[in-house]
Amino acid sequence: MSRTALVTGGSRGIGLAIARELATAGDDVAVTYRSGEPPEGLFGVHCDITDTAAVDAAFKQVEDTYGPVEVLVANAGVTKDQLLALMSEEDFSSVLDTNLTGAFRVAKRAVRGMMRKRGGRIILISSVVGLLGSGGQANYAASKAGLVGFGRSLARELGSRNITVNVVAPGFIETDMTAELPEERQTEIKKNVPLARYGSVEEIAKTVRFLSSEDAAYITGAVIPVDGGLGMGH
Question: Which domains does the chain have, with CATH numbers?
Fold first, then answer.
């Protein structure tokens, strides 16, 4: 039977690949988007995850269309990179509000239905940067590291209800953003990756598909790196 899946920030990049992978697996997939148009072939709901009322309204739209959310992928995120000495308090707090508190908002809303149903999957998209750290990304790294503690706390809290909570930590992935980096910077990055290449969005998506499946029913509180070995040991 198909499940209802919601992917936040699912209109492009990693989020879109995850949404399409879950749809291929047979799930009824909805995605949130903040600007532009929803992706073709997927049910899109406009949502700013920094707004609790907007999150609630988006969930209601999905529930009215497909039923309660059974698989939640908290993927939406932003970056506002800057050296600490130059970083504004607003740029620090706004990144945490989207990346970490946004995940809290959607997880809290999704858990209502999951607890009633006594089952569900929550997958948080973190980053290797949250494990390794990165100069000029103190706000982003803090938000992504926070997802690990958040996810593991939820795994302990919700396990008795048959709800699993796991974290995926992508490394450098081929996206529009990485494609814009100068060639010298791309070469430098790949030198630090044991597999000597970027990952693909599809490789992240397939990991999420596995964690959302029955095959992963006994996996919870895990941090799964998909980073070519970049963050090993963390």
Answer: 4-171+198-224 (3.40.50.720)
